[in-house]
Amino acid sequence: MGVNGKVTGKQMSGEFPSKNGDSNARPNALDALSDEQLMLEVQRGDGDAFTVIFDRYNRLVLTVALRIVHDVGEAQEVTQSVFLNFIAQREDLTLPEAHLKCTSLSPNTRQ
Asked: Of 8, 53, 62, 97, which cross-links 2 as Cys (Cβ 3.0–4.6 Å)?
């Protein structure tokens, strides 16, 4: 568990084998990848790519969960479940075609 009993992306990425041998180091190059590129890396088993996705989206998922369940502890559990399901189903997940079209048109899209 992380700070305040929360699970961190790095802890969840323990489901993946470490590619660089150092579980505490994350190449900064991954931070510049698009969600689509990170998704491909996650599907290949890259735990560091998962950590980047987790870092990008955990607050959003937690905020949405909190708005629905109105309880911080329960919202944290929901968030953890979302990301654990993401890991478990990573090989079958695809980004919606509409998302791909929208992000490819956005001037602020990461490349």
From this structure: 8
| CATH code for position 16 | 1.10.1740
Question: Does residue 110 lie in a domain region?
Answer: no
In a domain, 99, yes or no: yes
Tokens of 32: 């510049």
- If residue 57 lies in a helix (H) or strand (E), which one and from where to where? helix 47-69
Sole residue written with tokens 């980004």: 95
The C-alpha atoms of residue 13 and residue 29 are separated, in whole angstroms, by 17
Instruction: Tell me if residue 70 falls in helix, strand or coil.
Output: coil
17 to 22, 44, 48, 87, 100: CA distances (angstroms):
11, 10, 10, 13, 28
10: left (phi over 0), alpha (psi -120 to 50) or beta: alpha
Tell me the per-residue pLDDT of 54-87, one tens digit each, with 9 for 90 and over: 999 999 999 999 999 999 999 999 999 999 998 9
